[in-house]
Structure formats: C-alpha cells, structure tokens
Amino acid sequence: MTSAGSGLTLPQTCALSLLVFTGASQFALVGALAAGGNPLTAAAGAFFLGVRNAFYGLRLSQLLALPRAVRPFAAQWVIDETTVVALAQPTRRSARIGFAITGLTLYVLWNLTTLLGGLGAEAIGDTDAWGLDAAGPAVFLALLAPMLTSGVERAVAGLAVVLGLGLLPVLPAGVPVLVAALAAPAVLCAQGRRGARNGKSDGKGADR
Amino acid sequence: MNVWIAIGVTALGCYVVKLVGLLVPAGVLERPLVRRLAALLPVALLAALTAQQAFADGRVLVLDAKAAGLAAAAVALVLRAPFLVVVAAAVAVTAGVRAMTG
User: Residue B51: which of A39, A75, A165 has the nearest Cβ?
Assistant: First the structure.
C-alpha cells in the first residue's frame, strides 16, 4: 500500500505485513524510512507504537485463559481490532471465537491487500477523496462507545484524548499514545483518593 | 539491507511486546487494582488513537473533513445505528464535505 510508494520493495512491504502485523507500527516504520530516517530510529518509533499491544495482551490473557502452549501463536494476533472484538463478547467461549475469527480474517485480508496494494499501488488512486481515511477513527469510535459505561471510563477517555492530541506535536511518534495510557492509572488514583476522603477509611477506594 | 534490518528489529520487537502481555502470570491479574487498570487501559488507548487519527496529520493537529465524518459517526452511534452504518456515515460525510470544500 503506502509503503510501495516510499521506496520499499514488494518483498519488503509484504514481509512487514506478515511479520509485524500492527498497522500503526508499519506505517510509522515506512514513514520514518521514507523521510530518510535512520533504520534503527525508525524501528524504535514503530516499536513504541506497538507497545500498547502488551496492554491488550494483559487484558486478553485473563479473558481468553489460553493454554500456555497456544500463547506464542496467539500473540501475533494481539492487536487493536482483535482485542476490541474479544472484549465485546459476553462469554469466554465467544470471546475466544471472536478473537480467533477476527485474527484470522484480518491477518489474511491485511496481507492480501498489502500484496494487491503493492502490485497495483497506482491503480487505486486517491483514497482520501472518497473519505476512506475517516473509516479508521469511525471504527475506533464505534468500538470505544460501548466501553464508556460509567463516569470513570468517560473521564479516562477524555483525559486520554487531551494527552494524545496535546502531546502529539512535542513528543516522538508513538509516545503520546503511551502517555495517554497513563490516563487510566491517573483517573483510578484520583478516584481512590476521593473514595478515601468520602469516609471509607481503608484508603483504596479504587479496589473494587 | 538497512531496510531489512529495520523490518527485522520492528517485527521482533512488536512480537515480543505482544507475547509479554499474554505471558504475565495469572496471579498478578487476580488483584482487583490490576484488573481494573487492565480494563481501563484499552479505553485510554482507543480514545487517544481515535482522536489522533481524526484530528492529526502526522504530528500536526488539523481540523478537516474527517472531524465532520467523526461527528456523523458519533450521531449514528447515539442513534444506535449498526456498526457498518456508523462507519459508512463517517466515510460519506467526509467525502461530501471534501467534495463541497474542494
């Protein structure tokens, strides 16, 4: 796709999708390389963007309760989309099915479109003119909305948006999202303190 | 050659990070605070990613047709529209605004 237009060969582009399989990191790596960046600096930026997958894995491992032997294989599919689909399921069984189906479908489609995109990059034309670049945030918003069940979640989301956007111009790519993740412990901490002040003397109001 | 090194480092790093999250012992996750935190982290990350994809171009903040598209998606969500309708609304409004503003 975009990487074909920025100096990477077709095998390199396909290897990225097969091996990295984290869209944001791939775009970051390609962008940094295209801008003439040092390969290791580019890899570091892509790596920081991928760090959030560890937090997803943290949540998924308790949800899916996968056997230890399966985990190294499941790990490659721990990304934004599979996590969100798995989290949206009511039971462990459906969560596992959701994770597997989403993972497999995306993996196949992602690599297929990469190959097709690399082969016919010029033929596709300007996707922005069709508003397709708005699909990404819309998907994320649709996935995020059901999670905002209480004031705590809304506070976390609001703080994360402010941090993610506010720090974007000043920090290297990928880092603002990680800093925005700190909204979760920050809100929990504030909530715990408020709980403690409101009479409960155990001092850990967030532990519920 | 350098490009291949970058690809290799990125692939390995991204995979290890994914695996680490899955391999953290279950005992750690039994603690209520960790459980609460693990539930809130995806909320924070998704919110930040949504905002960045909608209001940023690279490292520059922008307010363009995508914002209108996202607003349309939000309205569709409030109206409890199906997932595909939400995404379609965002795409259609974004394309419409772009066509009108040139």
Answer: A165
Contacts of A87 in chain B (CB under 8 A): 42
Summarize pLDDT for B58-75 with one digit per residue, the tens.
778 888 888 999 999 999
What are the contacts of A106-111 at 24+ separation with CB within 8 A? A106/A77, A106/A79, A106/A81, A106/A82, A107/A21, A107/A76, A107/A77, A110/A17, A110/A21, A110/A23, A111/A14, A111/A17, A111/A18
Going from N- to C-terminal start, the domains of chain B cover 1-55, 63-102
Q: Which helix (H) or strand (E) holds A169?
A: none
Nearest CA among A86, A181, A9, A190 for reference residue B48: A181
Please calculate the CA angle A34-A24-A50 and round it to the nearest 5 degrees: 110
| pLDDT(A18) > 80 | no
Give the span between the Cα atoms of A44 and A167, in whole angstroms.
18
Judge: A24–B11 Cβ closer than 8 Å, yes or no: no
Return averaged pLDDT per consecutive 10 residues of chain B, 102 residues in all: 72 77 70 78 83 81 89 93 86 89 74
Q: Map out the domains of chain A as residue ranges.
A: 2-127, 148-197
What rounded mean pLDDT belongs to chain B? 82
**Could you write out the DSSP letters of every residue in B43-97?**
HHHHHHHHHHHHHEETTEE--SHHHHHHHHHHHHHHTT--HHHHHHHHHHHHHHH
Substitution target from B3, B20, B45 for chain A, most A beta carbons within 10 A: B45
Q: ipTM for the complex?
A: 0.78
Instruction: Output the six-digit token pair for A116.
Output: 């097709």
Convert the pLDDT of each residue in A89-141 to its tens digit.
777 777 788 777 777 777 777 777 777 766 655 454 555 666 667 777 887 78
